[in-house]
Amino acid sequence: MSKFVDRPRYLCALGGAIGTLNALPGVIPILHAAAGCGGNISNALNGGGGYSGSSYCGGQALPSSNVYENEIVFGGEARLEEQIENTLKVIDGELYFVVTGCMVEMIGDDTASVVKRFNRSNKTVLSSDTGGFKGNSYKGYDLVLETLFRDYVEKSDEKEPGTVNLFGIVPVQDVFWKGNLNELKRIISKLGLKVNTFFGSNETLDNLKNAAKASLNIVVSDTFGSDAAKVFEEVHNVPYINAPLPIGAKATSEFVLVIGQQR
Amino acid sequence: MPVHCEGFKTKIMATAYDAVYHGILRNLLSETKEESSIMEDEIEVLKRKLQVSKTVNVLNVSSMSRVDEDELTRILKALDLNTRFLPCYSHPDDFGNVQDAALNVSICATHDDYFVEHIKDIFGLPFILKTIPIGIKHTNIWIRDIAKFFGIEEAAEKFIESETRQLEEAIAPFKKILKGKKVFLAGGEIRVVTTAELLQSLGMEVTGMKGYHFDKFGNELLEELPGNDDIPVFPIFGQTINYLGYQGVFEFARRIARLLRNPSFNENISENTRLPYHKEWYKDDPFKYIDQSEALIG
After folding, report:
1. ipTM of the prediction
2. Which of A75, A139, A160, B94 could bridge to A13 as Cys pair (CB 3.0-4.6 Å)?
3. pLDDT tens string A60-100
4. Do A36 and B9 touch (CB under 8 A)?
5. Could you tell me the residue range of the domain that residue A90 belongs to?
6. Which residues does chain B have within 8 Å of residue A35's beta carbon, measured at their own beta carbons?
């Protein structure tokens, strides 16, 4: 047995959140955390995630409020507001998403209220409390998806019967996430369905924005993504199923049959 | 071993070195100076004293690859000195006899000043804390300082002369490729300044430098260099790259010459990557977002 962990198997909730946001096209994550969080997470995501790269705006270029002793004692909300303002000026993105580290949650910074101040800017700024101690990478994935489903996906009363959303495969954490999502999309498309995976190839943020038009959410996991699917159901009235993990020909056949039964 | 290193404590990353060394100094040192058994073989005692008098602790905090360690071992061995590397990759017990050496040698004051000064206070073990052996000039300075301490200047000069001659011959073809090329440097304080000297000695023009921080140790080196401002890309530290000593000079020159001969990787990357920064930002004053009032706090 090795005496130390050279490559972490998963990160904290903040790490999972950043990995998830980096996998979405054109999204700018903004960290509200101490300086070490961004740097360490960037290294751990790369080393632990099959050298996934830093994406459009990630890695060591991630905007971060870098709170220090002053903010820990007197509060970091002003620093965060300044960081969001400057990020909007410097970084060109389609969606800005504030994620938080342990220390700013321990001192009780109200991130959501700071982000609300940017409601009237022409850029979309969202946030999620992803304090590292909330869980591991999988939790971070769910927390980010919950916010995106609640605040970014546009409401739609009209549902398209042939459209489904598919998630539950955690980007970076599953180092083959893109290929896996692409393949599942290919298979389900053969059943005549239109599929949004949000993180797959050739998808844009519009796939996510218009996701409420889908008539079913397929969660390819018994756990990961389920909390987010519940939020989706509550806010957008789209039901979900937990489909079996399609690994191998037999399980993949079962997966296809389960999806087929939903039609 | 507890290390107190809360992330929000300071903006200076280098403080972490002090924090780790503090933990080592508090927990891993052994105060007993020498084991004294009643019946000790005199010859063994003398042998041991001789061994200690020729042993150098070289501190290898995070800026040294294994290949670098090999190069420094080779250099010191040529001067008939034994090398022991601390603290990275050593066993906690190795610090128990840190005093069984004639000299502590640092390759970077940013890392080691706190440690070597304390060891001097506790055990009276002297130290050398001046420069990092990057480039011919600074490698020579590093060797001469050590040689002076041991009174072996003559042997050192012979070694330096022979190494430098061979090296100059080996890097001559690279110098032709590198001559007049402009370079911008970013990295740790001591490393960028000495690397700048190395690049200038290869005939390149250093147009600017960015250090992670600056303190008194950097200032002394900085005064020797002219300054300017602008662009290119080679990682100046890697765990697989030899950078220190004479062989480090050759390896470095060889790698950047290769990079310059065929920069198509960098060109293709820049042509096919969309960077996240607004176009206007590139035209802004580079100091626009630096709040000077806060710069000194922390």
Report:
1. 0.85
2. A139
3. 889 999 999 999 999 999 999 999 999 999 999 999 999 99
4. no
5. 13-151
6. 7-8, 11
